Structure formats: C-alpha cells, structure tokens
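Researcher: Structure prediction, please.
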Amino acid sequence: MSTPIHTNAPFKVTKETSNANGFLLPSTLYNEVKHIASIPVKGFYAQDIPNFTDYKFKMHKNAFINDKLTIQAQLVKQNTNGYLVNIIVTKQKNTLNHQEMICSAFFLFPAESLEIEESKTAC
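Model: Predicted structure follows.
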C-alpha cells in the first residue's frame, strides 16, 4: 500500500443523539463510526462492502450537546487477510490546534478475491 486512504467526517452532537443529561449516546456514535469505517475500503470491492469480521470500539471521554466532532478514518493495513481501518473521533479543545480524543476504533474488513469469485461463478 503506497498511499494511505483517509476520510474525515464532521459529526455534531444534538438533542436526538444524546441522553436526557446531554451526553452523546455511545450506540449512536458507534453506528456513525461503523458507517464511516467502510468509506476507505469502498474501492477494493466489486460488489457491496461485506460486514467487518472483527472490531474494537472504545469510548475515552464523553461528548455533549453542541460538541462538534471529527470522525477520522484511515486504511492502515492491507494484506491477503483483509483491510484494517483505524478510527479516531476527536473534538477541538479551546486551546488552538489541540484535539481531545473522544473515541477510537479498529475495523477489519475481509479481503475479497475477484479471481476466486469469478472462477466460482464460471463453473
């Protein structure tokens, strides 16, 4: 892999994505992160992107209503077993150019061999 594939997506915490106390619901963030994780690997699949085969999701800090988060996804490893996507969710702190980590995750997507798939369908 010569060039890493990056994706940055904004996410704003709203009343709909938080609980009664204003804390971001982890399940909502997980669903958004899961969606964003598939973007860097889209080009490697001829059909739909398969479900990931393994993942790790960890909340480091809480986010609150009106927080503006950035979900950063990066393809960090590509081999015969699949594609590993690293996710970091951050929010800007009051100090200039300082980011606070809210969440981190890894998703492993299976490798798809087009030659094997084509030979199976040709038989």
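Model: The first helix runs from residue 26 to 37.
Researcher: Thanks, that helps.
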